[in-house]
Amino acid sequence: MNFDKIFSLKNKIVVITGAAGLLGRQHADAVAKAGGIPVLLDLQAELVEKLATDLQSRHDVLTAGYRVDITQESEIEANCNAILRRFGRIDALVNNAANNPKAESKCHEKFSRLENFPTLVWNDDIAVGLTGAFLCAKYYGSAIARQGGSIVNISSDLGLIAPDQRLYRKVDLSEEEQPVKPVSYSVVKHGLIGLTRYLATYWAKQKVRCNALCPGGVENINQEPEFLKEVCSRIPLGRLAQAHEYQGSLLFLLSEASSYMNGAVLSVDGGRTCW
Asked: HSE-up of 109 (CA within 13 Å, CB side)?
């Protein structure tokens, strides 16, 4: 068995949503390193076009960057047709785009609590993270089904467990005022696992595999030391991930290395969901 070959994405057209975000950039880099052609979608045109240019320069691969609002079906349909005209096919899709509502908020008192969580924000989070993934599967997935390929839905450890709201507690606030991780994030990430299992059976005869990747949290400079200490105490490895540590898992799911893996949920969270 040639291990270089089974992990290769050489000349594979891989569509990545939310590509200008923290993990989206890492996903795009992993695809480019493996010889694939990352097709980057994001609302931020300037960022995604710059990223495409950077990847092409660093990895000597073809790239493309497009501004696409994945909540708008007409934009996805038009973009899918544009990609097919340019490259002739689509081999893989990474449904990565999602809102990430925080426990804290600057715009509304006690914003994050279920009793106060605005329906407009709920609708927006569902539209991006879940409806957007469905629409992308509808168009890019249909294109993949012409010759077979892979779909990877980026879920989360919070697609497997509930948020531990103790992480966000403030000692000087009453129970009714305590900040919490908003409800929409977990619902979206659980929903992506359901979508994964549906798609895994829907296009199986067309040799389209669909799996979910459930990453844990990523360490960043904006996290408060006390929060970091508390969350790391709940992870067997004792730390959060570095942003690049999901690249190998994504490459595995996209490539022939996982050729018999379909409808699976791959948890990469330092062991957090074991406890």
From this structure: 3
Q: What is the largest CA-CA distance in the chain?
A: 61
| Residue 101: per-residue pLDDT | 80
**Exposed / middle / buried, residue 131 (Cβ in 10 Å: 0-12, 13-18, 19+):** middle
Most confident of 99-108, 130-139, 218-227: 130-139
User: Three-state SS for 4?
Assistant: helix
Least confident of 1-5, 164-168, 189-193: 1-5
Alpha-carbon gap, residue 135 to 197, rounded angstroms: 16
pLDDT over 80 at 104, yes or no: no
- The partner residues of 105 in beta bridges, in order of sequence, read none
- pLDDT of 229 above 80: yes
At 49, is the secondary structure helix, strand, or coil?
Answer: helix
Question: What strands lie across the sheet with 37-42, from one edge to the other?
Answer: 64-67, 37-42, 13-16, 92-95, 149-154, 208-215, 265-268
The fold of 3-265 is: Rossmann fold (3.40.50)
The CA distance from 106 to 1, in Å, is 55
Contacts for 60 with CB less than 8 Å, ≥ 6 apart = none
Q: For residue 106, is pLDDT > 50?
A: no
